[in-house]
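User: I'm new to structure prediction. If I give you an amino acid sequence, what do you actually give back? Let's try with this one:
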Amino acid sequence: MNTLEPISDAPSDTWRSLRFLFTDIDDTLTTDGMLRADAYGMLEKLHDAGIVVIPVTGRPAGWCDMITRFWPVGAIVGENGAFYFHYEQCTRRMTRQFAQSATQRASNRSRLKDVQAEVLRMVPGAAIASDQAYREADLAIDFCEDVARLCDDDINRIVGIFEASGATAKVSSIHVNGWFGSHDKLTMTRQLMHQEFDCEIATPKGQQACAFIGDSPNDAPMFGFFKNSIGVSNIADLAGRCEALPKWITEGASGAGFCELAQHILAARETST
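Assistant: Good question. You get back a string of structure tokens that encode the predicted 3D arrangement of the chain. For your 273 residues, that looks like this:
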């Protein structure tokens, strides 16, 4: 963790050209499972300042439909990159773009039923995530959200069961998510930005315009890709599982860390006007 630089050391120029802020939700925007007023208020302030905030989350399609309609966000990437939803308030038009066809998703959900049975048989204490009913493309195994926290060996066992079946498995701060397919948070974010915002995030201009903040191993593709990547301080709890780490780290944890980043962004924009 000593390789991460405090966000307070980031030059203010880092944030002056920012147009898009991608953020994880659980334990990045939320604190102890709740979206608190200060974090939601910062979403509104960023929106009002012209920053397009886009959650990039492991949460399910049912939640994502609500979030993109009712939160001050520009779009959302859900189920670790299985889809994006983009809602235009002025036209009341929802675009839903999936990585896989409806037929593929149905077939894969059937295959995941076998994985689910194996996990529940082999890992006592694990449970199907309470939001599973609202998912389109993945299986979420709860290891600490609504169950007593499982040990690292049990979490690794869940990952191993997914991978033995040929599925991709990613660990978040609360779930192990598994799916059949090559998509992840980054691949769908790139598709979203190209199709809906005419922004090529791999270019120098695109990199300058974007930042990502997160907290867990399923955020690693985003940490590794974005030049302006930030971890809230609780990333320390799962840093050993991350294939890539962010450049900057906040002093605050969870929602407080998100607010800390937002304050830096807003202060930089005020000095540039």
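You can read the tokens as a compact description of the fold. Here is one thing that stands out. The chain has a mean pLDDT of 96.
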